[in-house]
Amino acid sequence: MPQFMLISMYSTEGAGDFEITPEMIQAVLEKYAAWNEKMQQSGRLVAVNKLTDTGGKRVNGFGDRQVVTDGPFTETKEVVGGYWIVEAADYDEAVEMSRDCPSLEFGGFLEIREIEDFSKLGA
Amino acid sequence: MHTESEKVVGLVEHLFRRQAGRMVSTLTRIFGPKHLDLAEEVVQDALMKALQCWPYQGTPANPTAWLIQAAKNRALDLLRRETLLQSKADDIIAAFTPNEGSFNRPTGFSPLEALDDQLGMIFMACHPSLPRESRVALTLKTVGGFGVGEIARAFLAKEPTIAQRLVRAKRQIRDEGVLFELPEPTEMSGRLDSVLEVVYLLFNEGYTAHQGDSLVRFDLCEEAVRLGTLLTEHPTTDLPKCHALLSLMLLQAARLPARTSANGDMHVLGEQDRSLWNKRLIHRGLVHLDRCAEGDEPSEYHLQAAIAAVHAIAPSYRETDWKRIVGLYDQLAAMNPSPVVLLNRAVAVAKAFGPEAGLGALEEIGSHPTLAHYYLLPATLGDLFKELGETDKAAGCYRQALDRSCSEPERRFLQGRLKSVS
Q1: Do the beta carbons of residue B409 and residue B260 sit within 8 Å?
Q2: pLDDT tens string B34-44
Q3: What would the mean pLDDT of A37-50 be, rounded to a whole number?
Q4: Using the beta-carbon criterion (under 8 Å), do A22 and B47 form an inter-chain contact?
Q5: What is the DSSP annotation of B94-136?
Q6: Which of B17-31, B252-266, B319-333, B345-359 has the least mean pLDDT?
């Protein structure tokens, strides 16, 4: 079955002064627990990882002009938080699995990309 | 990674809120009252870390331990930035390390330390020099773990108003050098009065069915009962008046399920379905009523709790021991002849001795200025006239009551009454 990466992203712009209370955090996490449970039960979850929010490095250029910069990268408006890799029949199904992801309720978005299956491209 | 079957199904209700309250309290003790903002920052960061990680990591098997560890890490990070506080590192480690610290004492050893910190915070937040509204907001924000928005909704205030109130309160604490400590025995009674006032205010705010977010308001009752319970659990505050207030709150809270119907209609005591009263809370309330009888002088809370108990054990409104209630109100009125107390007494008098006697009692307080805007006075008069068959007078009274301000459920209730005599 094809695999898709659900990349969880959020925008750093308009992070906003709005308050996130302990009670709100708990409510969101309970939704995530339910969503993850659903994913697990479906047997389609292949992998999940979170990327650290601090740090990071960028390597640009090559040779004498190669530059290594330290994160966070303030000029980047969209940040990758983490990803889930799921099995799905096609994009439609991958989208259906993603629709109730809780990050969508809180200003985040999911980019869904199919993982290239090299076996289909020839030996 | 855990499989779902190994994990806790759902989190304990208000886990984050309660844990935030405990951790802010301990950090404020360690950093000092002047650094309350920092304590809140550390705790908020720890909670946000959970928000960032748990969606991917899954809910940890021990969520509380995870949060404590996150707070410890964040606090130690913060100490690198705040040079003045670097000496506190050992205290942080001592408080936040499993099997040694405040949060992880096995119950047989000494559960007092975590309780100590919450109480220390309550006494600080309820310091008598702070305006009462500030004490309420600060208590909810710190030891309660409520957010500014939640507090604003509960009190029908604007968020910036509450935010400003908190800023001023913290500044006052800094400027006046308010300490984080349990009061000396000689001061305890007075300081406790200040705390009990706040706790009861919180309870009442949640209990009286005004407009507003009903979920948050129910949380207020729960929080008030929780704080009241903490007070009775600590040796230095385990005093009769604390048991009295706790008893009162438990006995009233027991009636909540019968007080409001599903569509938000209000049921007065006489119309409540008593089978909906929470028996467990009544039992607890009566236990604490017993405990508070050990003191010398009854406080107002004692008397109010005793009155609530008479209602709680009565099988019906009619079968209530009204004469006993009148006697208790007589004692209460002697201590605090407020118009509201006297009004409630008049209702009891009517029940015990008949509507004419009730009218007489009401006549004595009818012209009191405080009651001029209180809808319950004309409403009670209306009820008595209705009972005497004087429907015109009753209708007039209900109309007068409707002219006075009240909540939507109260308005509907009065309109129902008016209809019944028109």
Answers
A1: yes
A2: 999 999 999 99
A3: 90
A4: yes
A5: HHHSTTTSGGG--TTT-THHHHHHHHHHHHHHT-TTS-HHHHH
A6: B252-266
Strand, helix or coil at A28?
Answer: helix
Place of tokens 């015109």: B392
Q: Could you tell me how many helices (H) and strands (E) chain B has, helices first?
A: 20, 0
Using alpha carbons only, what angle is made at residue B382 by residues B379 and B388, rounded to the nearest 5 degrees? 150
Distance CA B282, CA B279 (A): 5
| pTM (2 d.p.) | 0.85
Q: Closest by alpha carbon to B276, among B255, B248, B297? A: B255
Q: Which helix (H) or strand (E) holds B140?
A: helix B132-141
CA distance B50 to A25: 8
- CA–CA min distance A92, chain B (Å): 23
Q: Do A23 and B51 touch (CB under 8 A)?
A: no
Contacts of B160 in chain A (CB under 8 A): none
B75's CB contacts (< 8 A; 6+ apart) are B27, B42, B92, B96
Residue B354 has phi, psi (to 5 degrees) of 105, 155
Token pair listed for B376: 């319950």
Q: Residue B126: phi, psi to the nearest 5?
A: -100, 25
Burial level of B104, CB count in 10 A (0-12/13-18/19+)? middle
Nearest C-alpha neighbor of A6 from the set A47, A34, A54? A47
Segment B320-359, tens digit of pLDDT: 999 999 999 999 999 998 888 999 999 999 999 999 999 9
A37 touches B: beta carbon within 8 Å:
yes
CA distance B204 to chain A (A): 22
Q: Nearest C-alpha of chain A: how many angstroms from B65? A: 15
DSSP percent split of chain A into helix, strand, coil, nearest 5: 35, 35, 35
Helix, coil or strand: residue A68: strand
Higher pLDDT, A116 or B372: A116
How many A-B residue pairs are in contact by the CB < 8 A criterion? 77
Whether the Cβ atoms of residue B10 and residue A33 lie closer than 8 Å to each other: yes
Task: Check if B55 contacts A (Cβ < 8 Å).
Answer: yes
